[in-house]
Amino acid sequence: MHTPSNPLPWLCLATLLLASAARAQDTYVPPDEGPSPRGVLIAAKGGIVLTTPRQVFPSVIIGDSREGSGEISSSFATTSVGYRFGLDLLFPFNDRLALNTDVGIQRSAGSYAADGARPALTLELQSVNVAGMLQGNLYTDPGAFTSGGVRAVYIGGGLDINVKMLANRLEGGVVYDSASPATTGAGSFQNNDPFRTTLGLRLASGARFGFDDAMEFGLEASYTFGLNPIFSSDVIRDNSYTTDHIMLQISIGHRF
Prior knowledge:
It is a single chain. The protein is mainly beta. It has a single domain (37-255), classed as Porin. It has helices at 8-27, 144-147; strands at 41-54, 77-78, 80-92, 97-112, 121-140, 149-174, 183-187, 198-210, 215-226, 242-255. Strands 1-3-4-5-6-8-9-10 form an eight-stranded antiparallel barrel. The longest helix has 20 residues, at 8-27.
């Protein structure tokens, strides 16, 4: 019968190998890969909003006016400058496609020039807006996520929703006496009953730039086409007044 050799030397060798492996595992520090194209981005975002009204503006009573403003043709529409600021969130699915959400406060104005018989008219609105878009990267540079530079150039599309009206102000022609011509006056709707939740189709393009760390800077231009009327049909019937917006925004945030 064969007698096995002494296992002690083999046991000692195995112990030494295991100990060496354990020490190597304890002292190993994985390299710092930094942010990646698949990291979530949280950023502060803001910029200017250029607003142009579409369709006929309805006849409304402004302030203490004895008469309505009269309907105003879209041929008198002009572009007004407002602003938007808020929070931008980006959730990548992969290196090329991501979901972008934008929550912000927007102040915009629909304006119509005077026509000789009446003063100019402007409806200013301040609202809470939420946008959701799919974004696709036309260009990406993974190296820019560790060394800085242009990280991505993208295009996107989705919906921009006015979910809550915060304030409104209407400035236009006011008639105090039927014998006197209209003068400029101001007023506001006391509640949100005249307004509806509005939807806009939003198209955007932009670029993101990385710094040496996870900080990221962005530039974006977008266009929002109004899909439904601003005024509720329960208050103002047969009116399709709406607005379109061009937004130029910058952002700065952190990529995880």
